[in-house]
């Protein structure tokens, strides 16, 4: 059986199409690797690339993309609402059909050490590839962000896993790792108040100090604003979508928003989403809305798309956003 692996690097560039096109070009140049999506965000000044392929080719594709980003992106000029630690903020490998998390750890280590030796950039391993317990959490690795790197590298507990323990002003640091699939899911509010968005996020994320009836397991959440749309969002990472469905997150955020006098008006998916996640959401909405006739795959996806408001900020095309569809199409096109 072939070993399929996904890689979802996040680059700190959301506006310059020439830079993004060059990163895309070097990924496409690697045989047996399929570029599935490029999802830029101007407000976050960040772009999520999604590509997948055979294990033996994925490390090279990831490294070449990282090499171009390190050459083209200048962190001294970077401004954006999303937390980040460098030009190549994070590069996770995710197991797909026929592969395991151990395969992804192997690739993460290969790529990380090449970043350190060939590009001279420092960084950390996170997730399943973490070298120590406190580095499993991406937020911990990113703490202090780009602006705090110099101070962070003075701490013996935060010396890099690869590369020199020296601040690289142009590229910052990078975080490479292995993890299971997560869904980046942002919910739109009918307010531009970041304070309200942060209060809601604090009540739904899995780790929080405040008591909350709507706190969800395996969920990360922060509040921020999206100036290009004039709204605030609750930005979440659904760490385990079988444990938390998109419906669960939508419902929890909606309840907390209502308590503060605002509403969830829609939402967006950043990157690709597994087919099962939308089918599960569709089934939950069908039950909530007592729509017993909604049964087919097409109907469930349509109901989930409408109920979650996935097309509020920009058009949502299931054929371009569902991982299963996009990967199958990419493979069919290459044959």
TrEMBL record:
Entry keyword set: Cytoplasm, Folate-binding, Histidine metabolism, Transferase
Domain of life: Bacteria
Domain annotation Formiminotransferase C-terminal subdomain: ranges: 181-326
GO biological process, one term: L-histidine catabolic process to glutamate and formate
Cellular component per GO, a single term: cytoplasm
Pathway: Amino-acid degradation; L-histidine degradation into L-glutamate; L-glutamate from N-formimidoyl-L-glutamate (transferase route): step 1/1
SMART domains: FTCD, FTCD_N
GO molecular function, one term: folic acid binding
Localization, UniProt: Cytoplasm
Name the record gives this protein: glutamate formimidoyltransferase
Gene: ftcD
